[in-house]
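Example complex used in Figure S2.
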Amino acid sequence: MPQPMSRPILSVDGLSKVYEGGFTALDAVSLEIREGEILALLGPNGAGKTTLIGSVCGLIQPSGGRVLVDGHDTLTDYRAARRLIGLVPQEINLEPFEKVISTVRFSRGLFGKRRNEALIERILRQLSLWDKRDSPIRALSGGMKRRVLIAKALAHEPRILFLDEPSAGVDVELRRDMWEVVRNLKRDGVTIILTTHYLEEAEAMADRIGVINKGQILLVEDKDALMKRLGKKELVIELREPVPAVPEALRHYGLRPTGNGHRLVYTYDTHGERTGITRLLADIQAAGLHLCDVETRESTLEEIFVDLVAEERAAP
Amino acid sequence: MNLRAIAAIYRFEMGRTFRTLGQSVLSPVLTTSLYFVVFGTAIGSRIDEIDGVSYGAFIVPGLIMLTVLQQAVSNASFGIYFPKFIGTIYELLSAPVSFLEVTAGYVLAAATKALAIGLIILGTSFLFVEITIQHPVWMAAFLVLTCLTFALFGFIIGIWAQNFEQLQLVPLLVITPLVFLGGAFYSITMLPDAWQAISLFNPVVYLISGFRWAFFGLADVPVGWSLVAISGFLLVCLAVIAWIFRTGWRLRP
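Predicted assembly (569 residues):
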């Protein structure tokens, strides 16, 4: 559930990145992430998701703007800021000849933390990697390697975790496992920002959704509220006899015939004063059509996202 | 100062050495032994003593320098280039570490390896020739300073290199010729005057000369110059690395 009362742990203010050659990857992005929430950042390829993460985490030098992590500026007070952040990159970047446990220990040391074998064992067990702790990384499957990346990111006990496309190239079962890991982290109080192409993933896990396109944040909104606000409902009316075309008397409802005329789809706004369903059903009966079945369905996050990006593209 | 980060990088890099012990240690020892057999025994037996030092012993400082320079440069350059190549550099860039700490971790590890190999070669040379080190403290100081300085230089090459070819370019095409022409196997005083003057522009001449002085009390150039040359190069390398990390050149887009 979203936590509207929690304070922002990450504040991005007017962050921009213009590469040599003039390409604007981030265009004055401002964003606040609340402590303990899961924010899913959605956007098409090249929208600026990874650049945004890279600029916050220190991989990319921003051209302008400011990022505060729990009040610490990522440029002037980078040590304090970075200590709070864990990063799981999109690519599987791991030293192939290193053992699993050594690479996780290395990550903890790099962040200036004292050795803590009990903690590393807990992390590896949590990620089902304990049995593989002495295996060289090159011997692991793709999914296991991704888990190692997560273990490395968690080794210094960060309060904020960036997951850049955590499910890319991961099979369905492992993806579900990964979701479970993320939910457990949230339960432990870790703030999570994830970018994903799998809208199902965002829908399943996120408290809030951010949509980014062409380096600009289009919206950041509570997931449920977003789905309520932008989501449309559809009423699917199944007819006993197919109709070759929508009868004249029903034209003003904007019905969409499907299934070779066996079904009529009526789209309505759930927040409208009147949905028009009662009148529609009465008019269908008056038009001499016989109902066989009626069902409703809600737009998925994917449909909302596609609409949003399409609107943005259509904008001048 | 994030000392644990320095220790973590150092341990990680040393771990790589122990994983590839044969390649890291045996290979330079074998190469040096071959130099002794070819130059020291086969050819050296036909060469008179140089300033009272047998030719076999005379080439020991040069041989150590040749390997130490190559090892310091290639270990440090590979150490930082490999994370760039496979993408694990993201971890260094997102960690709470300063340029000084990252450099210290990689350079100390590369210098340690080069120093260890230098000492192993020195030990190997005792099997072939008789040597008495006149200034052991200065010998150690020159060796350590050279290892550190050239590890720093290698670190810069590793950041600069954008492919494996570039990574090999400087050690093979710059370091090796400079060492061979820097008096590793001869005294530059044996050269004609013009070539002696040209040799003074070769920085490695100062290293080998100073190092040889520590062994035998013989030097092609005053030992003070040798110290100034190596210290100056050390400062230049430090300044370049400070600039790289400040600007993010070839590290942060």
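The mean pLDDT of chain B is 87. Chain B has one domain: 3-247.
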